[in-house]
Amino acid sequence: MREAIIIGGGPCGLSVGMALQEQGIDYLILEKRAIVNTILSFPANMRFYSTSDRLEIGNVPFLSEEERPTRHEVMRYYRAVVTRQQMNILTFHHVIRVERSSDGFLVHTHNHLGKEEVFEARRIVIATGIYDHPRLLGVPGENLSKVMHYYTEGHSYSGRSVLVAGGKNSAVEAAIDLYRSGAQVSLVHRGATVYQGIKPTLLLDIRNLIEKGRIGFYPESAITRIEEEQVFVQSGNEQIKIQNDFVFSLIGYQPDLSMLNDLGIMLDHQTQIPLFDPDTYETNVADIFVAGVVTGGITNKVFIDDGRLHGPKIAEKIAADMGRK
């Protein structure tokens, strides 16, 4: 039996593992896909707004070519950390349920072959993030194959009519990249503007593209129906029909709350933030901790920069419980 199992192999889960490793505490990270799988799903040419030093975990320095690293550099850094630190992680192990045992927890997983494997631990750390569960538009046609909730690159959509829904960084970045890749781009946003709250590096480009009519922008608007060859948008009192081949719905993501609910972790009714001690990150259920983005519920206010700092506090609490401090 291990002292701790960490569910989630993103940067924040890796940070917890590093902190436990430094304390000499036996741990295992279970990740349902690849190491830092969320970052793997980011746009191929994305450059992080966070500087490289704010993405570091443990005492491993992150040196990038420029102050703000690329997606490729970030993935390479975390791979190197796992390899050089010989971290104890199993990828492609999807946790399907966690249950209490007489002296801890049983963690049931499906491996890459679809076979069930069970692991035991005295404590559980949930660091599952939110990126696997996109928010839905809730409109007819959203289940069509032309509708996607993740964006990686624009090359495939050259010469096609593409609508992007959303007004935050991911939507704006996708719209710009699609335009540069030769797509005919429409951007639909519920808000009045996309010029506020986005990365400064995107602001000049999106303003120029919208004001010059290169990207069709529909503010204070919402998609009402998606069909095979068009999308219907409500803009004020007007119903607009836009010819369309593909839709990227990039309106945000939310945590999978089923595991937390099943384990009896209390959630705030409005924010879905789990109940935890801010000094230790232990939840209202003894020996179950939360770390990283999942601690922000549906607020989307916790990022790698902050979540990577949760690991040391969790490790200190576990070490104290073990009588090491």
UniProtKB/TrEMBL annotation:
Keywords of the record: Flavoprotein, Oxidoreductase
Pfam family name, one: Pyr_redox_3
Cofactor dependence: FAD
Ranges in coiled-coil conformation: none
Annotated Gene3D superfamilies: FAD/NAD(P)-binding domain
NCBIfam families listed in its UniProt record: Bthiol_YpdA
Protein name in UniProt: YpdA family putative bacillithiol disulfide reductase
